[in-house]
């Protein structure tokens, strides 16, 4: 859930610096710090909480569409097979 994810609004961009499944939020003010060099997560916990709530809400909706995550695909890529027969 927290690996390689981010959430943003018109002012802030929050990214997860997680190396595993644990969240590790970094927060950047994209209006004042376009290069995203100054992490404001500890200074703006209310913004982190707000964006995290929005992310969690999105995640719950998106998770429903991931029902086939464990599906096993065909042995050969059908597009490659198709291109060999034409």
Helix content: 25-40%
Strand/helix succession:
EEEHH
Distance between the termini: 41 Å
Shape estimate? elongated
Supply Rg.
19 Å
Strand order of the largest sheet: 1-2-3
Structural class: alpha+beta
The share of residues in extended strands comes to 15-25%
Mean pLDDT: 87
Largest sheet: 3 strands, antiparallel
Which regions have little confidence, pLDDT < 50, spanning 5+ residues?
A: none
According to DSSP, the number of beta strands is 3
Question: How many individual helices?
Answer: 2
How would you explain this protein's 3D organization?
The chain has 86 residues and is an alpha+beta fold. 31% of the residues lie in helices and 15% in strands. The chain has two helices and three strands, in the order βββαα. It has helices at residues 45-63, 78-85; strands spanning 6-8, 12-16, 25-29. The protein has a three-stranded antiparallel β-sheet with strand order 1-2-3, with helices on one face. β2 and β3 (25-29) form a beta hairpin. The longest helix has 19 residues, at 45-63. The chain is elongated. The termini are far apart.
Helix and strand arrangement:
Elements: E1 6-8, E2 12-16, E3 25-29, H1 45-63, H2 78-85
Antiparallel strand pairs: 1-2, 2-3
